Amino acid sequence: TENVAERVKQMREKKFTLTAQHLHNTYIVGYDNIGKFIQEVSMAVDKSETCDDESYESSKLRLLIGASIVSDIRRAVKEQTGYTCSAGISHNKILAKLICGMNKPNKQTVIPIDSTKILFETLEVHKIKSMGGKIGEEVCKKLGIRLMCELLPFEEADLQQHFGARIGTFLYYIARGIDLE
């Protein structure tokens, strides 16, 4: 968080600029290319007074800066060890782990919150952490679903009624890309 805040400050002072070249091995779920995402985020930053709020534009900027920091870390790993690595950058751990392997090898993937729906249109329920075993099978069977996007129509109370308070709430939120851990 401190590193991201420092880079936001440097961007405002025109001491740091995000470029597609710096993030050349970065993919953004829901976007054709990194340059388009950088341009969209940069325009939003230029229009706003601050990026310290919890706005959607601020969230995308923080993800993009996080991608820049992760890119630097991956470059340092390569220089110091000779190994390459992939990474997932998201607003929560479950999504970051899901997307980490999407563009292997030696690449990183970012998922903005509004792109979760795109990912979940093809993601099977059993791919979600703790949904790979009997619980995932039970969810799919009871609800007659297979994909994460098929959970969206269900209300939290309905999911709690079928699977209990803890699992029902987890399913409700994770279907929307929210992890409460």
In which order are the strands of the major sheet placed?
Answer: 1-3-2
Which structural class do you get from the secondary structure elements?
mainly alpha
Given the C-alpha coordinates, what overall shape results? elongated
Model regions low in confidence, pLDDT < 50 over at least 5 residues:
none
Tell how many strands the DSSP assignment holds. 3
Biggest β-sheet strands, sense, barrel: 3 strands, parallel
The level of helicity is 40-55%
Oligomerization state of this entry? single chain
Number of helices: 8
Write a concise keyword list for the protein shown above.
single chain; 181 residues; mainly alpha; three-stranded parallel β-sheet; 8 helices; 3 strands; 51% helix; 5% strand
Verbal overview:
This protein has helices at residues 2-12, 34-47, 56-81, 93-100, 116-120, 134-143, 156-163, 165-174; strands at 26-28, 87-89, 108-110. It is mainly α and 181 residues long. It is elongated. The two termini are 18 Å apart. Strand 2 (87-89), helix 4 (93-100) and strand 3 (108-110) form a beta-alpha-beta unit. The chain has a three-stranded parallel beta sheet. The longest helix is centred in the middle third of the chain and has 26 residues, at 56-81. The model has no long low-confidence stretch (mean pLDDT 89).
